[in-house]
Inverse folding.
C-alpha cells in the first residue's frame, strides 16, 4: 500500500525535518504514529496525504511512485486517502451534512444518491440532531466527529488521523477507536497519530515512533 | 451553495458596479466610434463626383439670370452630367443648422448654389476660369480638400473610440484577475482542503467561474441597459438639433447587434478570465 525508501523532506531551503525514512504499510494494516511535538509527525502525515512531496527518496503509494506522479494525477490518489486533521479543517459556511458530503460531491456523486448515507454516518457518530449546524456553532468534540465522518464517508483505502480522539470524552474516544477498528477489519489501512501512550498500549498495534526527524518502527509491521 | 464562501468576498460588492460602469462606458465609446465610421462613409458617398458652384451676391446684379447663365454654361462642359440650381428655400435649409432659422430673413443676402454631378475627371481650375469669365461672382467649390481633413479627424476619433473600448476591456480583465487572486488568497485554506480531499483544479476553478458569471451578469446587464437608454436619449436629443454634420446614432441591425452583444462579451470575458486566473494560480499549488 505504502512504501518509504530513504525518504527525506525539508521545507524550502531549510534543514531536513525528516531523514532517511524507511517503512512500509501493508494493505489492511493499523499503525500508531507517535513522537514528541516538533519531532516530524505532521510532516510525515503531509507526505502520506500528498500535501508535500519528498525532497529525496522514493515513496510508493498504490503501486505508483509519488515523487514522479504528475500533479494532475494526484486528485485520484487523494480520493483514496481519508484524513482527519488535528485542527479539523472543516468549511465554516457549510453545514455538518455538507461538510461530510464534500468528498462524495467532489467525486461527482449526486446529493440524492448520498444524502441518506451521510445522514446515517452522522447519526452513528452522535450528531443526528446537529446535521444542519455549521462548524462555528459546534463544540470541539462535535467538530472532530464531523471531521472523522468526512474522512471515512468515501470509504478510503488509507485513513490518516491526527489526534482523532483528542477533543472527545473517553467514552466517545473509545467508540471512535472501535469505528477505526471496524474500518480496519474491512480492509482500510490506518495510521493514527497520537500522543496517548495509554491508547497505544491498550490497542497493541505496531508503532511508528518519530524522534528528531528519524523514524523507528516498533512491533510487527 | 458553493464549497467556497465566495459570495461573502469583497469582490461581490464592488465587481458588479465596476463591470456596470465598464460596460456603460464601453458601449458609449463603441457607439461613438460606429457613428463616426458611419458618418465618414456617408460624407464620402455624398461628395463622390459632386461639386458645388457658388454664385456670390453682387450688389446691383440680379441672382436669377446669373444662375441661369451658370447652369447653361455648366451643361456644356464635357463630363458634367447634371447641374441643378438650388432654390432659396433649399439654401436656407442648408444654412439653418449653422445660423438658426430665425436669422434667415428675406433681407439676408444668400449666395446662389448649383449642385453639379460629374461623371469623370474635371479640370477644376479651367472650369473655375471659364465660369468666372461668363458669370461674375461664380466659383467652383470642391469639397474634397476640407472633407479629407474632416475625415482624418473623424478617423482619429473613431480609432480613439475603439481604443477606449479595448482599454476598458483590458482594465476589466485586470480587475477580474485582481479580484480572483484576492479571492484565492482569502480562501487558500479551504482550497487546500478541497485539494486534499481530491478536488481537481477544474472543480475549484468552476466555483470562481460561476461566482464571477453571477457578478458579471449583475453588473453587465444593468450597465448595458443604462447605456442603451443613454444612447436612445442622445439620439433623441441629437435628432432635435437639426445639425446635419453631427453623426447620427442610427446603426442598422448589425451595429445595434454589436452594441447589444457588448455586455454579453464583457460577461463572457470576465468569466473566462476568472477561470484562467484560478487555473493558473492553482497550478502553482501541489
Amino acid at each position: 500500500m505504502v512504501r518509504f525508501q530513504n525518504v527525506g523532506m525539508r521545507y524550502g531551503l531549510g534543514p531536513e525535518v525528516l531523514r532517511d525514512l524507511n517503512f512500509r504499510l501493508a494493505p489492511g494494516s493499523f499503525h500508531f504514529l507517535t513522537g514528541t511535538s516538533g519531532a516530524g509527525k505532521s510532516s510525515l502525515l503531509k507526505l502520506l496525504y500528498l500535501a508535500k512531496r519528498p525532497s529525496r527518496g522514493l515513496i510508493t503509494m498504490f503501486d505508483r511512485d509519488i515523487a514522479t506522479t504528475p500533479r494532475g494525477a494526484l486528485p485520484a490518489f487523494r480520493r483514496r486517502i481519508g484524513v482527519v486533521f488535528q485542527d479539523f479543517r472543516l468549511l465554516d459556511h457549510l453545514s455538518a451534512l455538507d461538510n461530510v458530503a464534500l468528498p462524495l460531491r467532489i467525486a461527482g456523486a449526486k446529493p440524492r444518491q448520498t444524502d441518506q448515507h451521510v445522514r446515517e454516518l452522522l447519526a452513528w457518530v452522535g450528531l443526528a440532531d446537529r446535521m444542519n449546524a455549521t462548524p462555528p456553532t459546534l463544540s470541539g468534540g462535535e467538530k472532530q466527529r464531523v471531521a472523522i465522518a468526512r474522512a471515512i464517508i468515501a470509504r478510503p483505502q488509507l485513513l490518516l488521523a491526527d489526534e482523532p480522539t483528542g477533543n472527545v470524552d473517553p467514552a466517545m474516544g473509545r467508540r471512535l477507536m472501535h469505528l477505526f477498528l471496524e474500518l480496519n477489519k474491512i480492509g482500510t489501512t490506518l495510521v493514527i497519530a497520537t500522543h496517548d501512550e495509554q491508547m497505544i498500549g491498550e490497542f497493541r498495534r505496531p508503532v511508528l515512533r518519530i524522534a528528531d526527524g528519524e523514524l523507528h518502527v516498533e512491533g510487527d509491521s | 451553495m458553493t464549497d467556497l464562501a465566495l459570495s461573502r468576498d469583497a469582490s461581490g460588492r464592488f465587481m458588479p458596479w465596476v463591470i456596470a460602469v465598464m460596460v456603460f462606458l464601453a458601449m458609449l465609446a463603441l457607439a461613438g466610434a460606429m457613428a463616426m465610421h458611419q458618418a465618414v462613409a456617408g460624407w464620402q458617398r455624398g461628395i463622390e463626383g459632386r461639386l458645388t458652384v457658388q454664385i456670390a451676391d453682387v450688389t446691383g446684379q440680379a441672382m436669377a439670370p446669373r444662375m441661369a447663365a451658370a447652369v447653361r454654361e455648366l451643361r456644356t462642359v464635357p463630363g458634367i452630367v447634371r447641374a441643378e440650381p438650388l432654390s432659396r428655400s433649399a439654401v436656407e435649409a442648408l444654412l439653418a443648422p449653422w445660423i438658426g432659422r430665425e436669422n434667415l430673413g428675406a433681407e439676408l443676402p444668400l449666395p446662389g448654389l448649383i449642385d453639379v454631378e460629374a461623371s469623370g475627371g474635371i479640370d477644376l481650375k479651367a472650369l473655375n476660369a471659364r465660369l468666372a469669365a461668363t458669370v461674375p461672382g461664380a466659383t467652383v467649390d470642391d469639397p474634397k480638400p476640407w472633407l479629407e481633413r474632416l475625415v482624418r479627424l473623424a478617423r482619429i476619433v473613431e480609432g480613439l473610440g475603439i481604443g477606449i473600448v479595448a482599454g476598458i476591456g483590458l482594465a476589466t480583465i485586470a480587475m477580474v484577475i485582481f479580484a480572483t487572486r484576492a479571492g484565492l488568497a482569502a480562501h487558500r485554506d479551504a482550497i487546500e482542503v478541497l485539494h486534499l480531499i481530491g478536488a481537481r483544479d477544474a472543480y475549484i476553478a468552476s466555483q470562481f467561474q460561476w461566482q464571477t458569471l453571477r457578478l458579471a451578469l449583475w453588473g453587465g446587464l444593468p450597465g448595458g441597459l443604462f447605456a442603451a437608454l443613454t444612447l436612445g436619449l442622445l439620439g433623441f436629443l441629437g435628432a432635435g438639433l437639426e445639425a446635419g454634420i453631427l453623426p447620427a446614432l442610427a446603426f442598422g441591425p448589425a451595429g445595434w447587434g454589436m452594441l447589444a452583444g457588448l455586455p454579453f462579451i464583457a460577461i463572457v470575458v470576465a468569466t473566462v478570465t476568472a477561470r484562467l486566473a484560478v487555473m493558473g494560480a492553482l497550478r502553482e499549488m501541489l
Remarks:
- Chain A has a mean pLDDT of 91.
- The first helix of chain A runs from residue 41 to 48.
- Residues 32 and 207 of chain A are 5 Å apart (CA to CA).
